[in-house]
Write a structure and sequence with these properties.
- The protein is an alpha/beta fold and 186 residues long.
- Helix content is 31%, strand content 27%.
- The chain has a 5-stranded mixed barrel.
- Helix 3 runs antiparallel to helix 7.
- The chain is globular and about 40 Å long.
- The model has no long low-confidence stretch (mean pLDDT 90).
């Protein structure tokens, strides 16, 4: 049985899910693309920015697909969503958009029109070689509550608490035999 690799781009994310023995991959597309990861099941767990109006700080977005570095990559999410909701987390399912830069206020409304629920800077570059592939992002900033505000500290802590609370669901997904992990988007 191949155990899924748990990827965390930031050290603070790695600390939040430390019980899973995550691999620190680094911030941004360059470091993510350079991460040496084995082929096989992979899950990205970290913080992200909300694009859709209904996504709030502390909510969790589970990718149905990841867009950004070429073709959209379908993501495995069925079992994750139920497990995260059982933990009392507010969970949204939808596309996550990976960009090569931090997304600021002005850009968020145009990106929201693509239908993506959240944005990050790593997932699309961590997808190659992963099968199945999953992404869970705890939201810190949104269009109405952007980065670089006084509230960012409180929102960052809310995101980290949600990420920490998600550990049992992430562990359950990572421990499943590869043959039982869904590979298709429902």
């Amino acid at each position: 049985m191949t155990r899924a690799v748990v990827c965390t781009p930031l050290r603070i994310e790695q600390a939040a899910v430390r019980g899973l023995r995550p691999v620190h991959t680094g911030l941004g597309p360059r470091r993510s693309a350079a991460a040496r990861l084995p082929a096989g099941p992979r899950i990205v767990a970290g913080l992200g920015g909300g694009l859709a109006a209904q996504v709030r700080p502390g909510d969790v977005v589970v990718a149905s697909e990841v867009r950004g570095a070429g073709e959209a990559v379908p993501a495995s999410f069925a079992s994750l969503v139920d497990d995260l909701r059982e933990l009392g987390l507010t969970v949204h399912i939808g596309p996550i958009l990976s960009t090569d830069h931090p997304v600021r206020e002005r850009e968020r409304s145009s990106l929201a029109k693509t239908g993506a629920l959240a944005v990050d800077m790593e997932s699309a570059w961590l997808a190659p070689g992963a099968a199945p592939f999953a992404v869970v992002r705890a939201i810190v900033d949104t269009a109405n509550q952007p980065l670089l505000r006084v509230s960012t500290i409180a929102h960052g802590l809310a995101g980290l608490r949600s990420l920490r609370r998600a550990v049992p669901a992430l562990a359950g997904w990572a421990a499943k035999p590869t043959t039982t992990l869904p590979r298709e988007v429902r």
